[in-house]
Specification:
Blueprint lengths: L1 H11 L2 H6 L14 H26 L5 H26 L4
Length: about 100
């Protein structure tokens, strides 16, 4: 069950960016925006925090072991590194 919830969070994290940001990650770093851009930033942050908090809460409730929690947190870190690399590559005009 824990892996299903965590996999669902991987799907939910980029959704605000896709729907409200036009599929670009550049709006996340800007101070511009409005109602929809601010909502997208909030939802992206909330889903990212949920991806970190859910494994910790499940470990605290003794539903998963420490190793499973660490694997999920490391996988989230790898996911964030991938998103940051994608963001950096999308900023370069050479790509």
């Amino acid at each position: 069950m824990a892996m299903t919830v965590h996999a669902l969070m991987y799907v939910l994290v980029p959704m605000p960016c896709l729907f409200f940001g036009g599929g670009s990650t550049q709006f996340l770093m800007s101070r511009d925006g409005g109602g929809w851009m601010d909502a997208a930033k909030f939802l992206t942050g909330a889903s990212a925090m949920g991806s970190i908090a859910i494994p910790i809460i499940l470990k605290h409730a003794h539903m998963i072991e420490t190793g499973a929690m660490l694997i999920e947190l490391v996988s989230f870190f790898i996911f964030i590194c991938t998103v940051m690399c994608f963001h950096q590559a999308s900023l370069d005009d050479d790509w």
